[in-house]
Design a protein that fits this description.
With 156 residues, this protein is an alpha+beta fold. Helices cover 18% and strands 37% of the residues. The radius of gyration is 17 Å and the shape is elongated.
Length: 156
C-alpha cells in the first residue's frame, strides 16, 4: 500500500499531520523503534481524545518513496496498537531465549517492565508487548544483563 492509498482508506476522520510532528517526541520516541523520518507518515484525528492528545496513525514504509507499507501503528488513549502484521510483529513473534533486550528495544521500542525475584534467586524483568490482532507477548529477561530467558504468546 502506498501513502496515497493509506490516505484514501483512513477517510475524513483524520488528516495528514505536519511531517514527523510526533515521531521524535515522548512517548512516541520510546514506543516506536523507527527513527528514519523519511520513511514514516503520520496522520492525526481531527478531534483530540481524552487528555488532549489526538489519535495518531504511524505508517512505516520500506523507502522514502512511500510506495510499500511495511508497518502501521495506531496511538489511542496512551497505547500503541499494531495495525499490520508486518516486520515489527514478525520480529516480536521470533524472539527466543538468548536474544538481547538491547536488540528488542532497537527493533520494537521500549515498554515498561516489572522486576521480580526469579526462582533461581536472581532479579528478572517481565515485559508485555501487544502484537497484531491484540495478541500479548511476554518477554522475561535477566535484569543484570538483559538476556532473554523466555518469550511466549501470553494471550488468554
Amino acid at each position: 500500500m502506498s501513502d496515497e492509498e493509506v490516505t484514501s482508506r483512513i477517510g475524513e476522520m483524520t488528516r495528514l499531520s505536519i511531517t514527523n510532528r510526533y515521531l521524535g517526541v515522548f512517548p512516541f520516541c520510546d514506543l516506536l523503534p523507527y527513527t528514519n523520518h523519511a520513511i514514516v507518515s503520520e496522520w492525526q484525528s481531527t478531534q483530540a481524545a481524552e487528555g488532549g492528545t489526538p489519535d495518531i496513525l504511524f505508517a512505516i514504509y520500506d523507502s522514502p518513496e512511500k510506495k510499500h507499507l511495511v508497518d502501521a501503528f495506531w496511538y489511542h488513549q496512551g497505547f500503541i496498537h499494531v495495525m499490520l502484521n508486518g516486520i515489527w510483529n514478525h520480529y516480536l513473534g521470533s524472539l527466543k531465549p538468548g536474544d538481547s533486550m538491547a536488540n528488542v528495544y532497537q527493533k520494537l521500542g521500549k515498554r515498561e517492565c516489572n522486576y521480580y525475584l526469579g526462582a533461581n534467586g536472581q532479579w528478572q524483568v517481565r515485559f508485555v508487548y501487544w502484537g497484531w490482532e491484540g495478541r500479548s507477548y511476554v518477554i522475561e529477561a535477566r535484569a543484570a544483563d538483559g538476556i532473554i530467558l523466555s518469550s511466549y504468546d501470553g494471550t488468554l
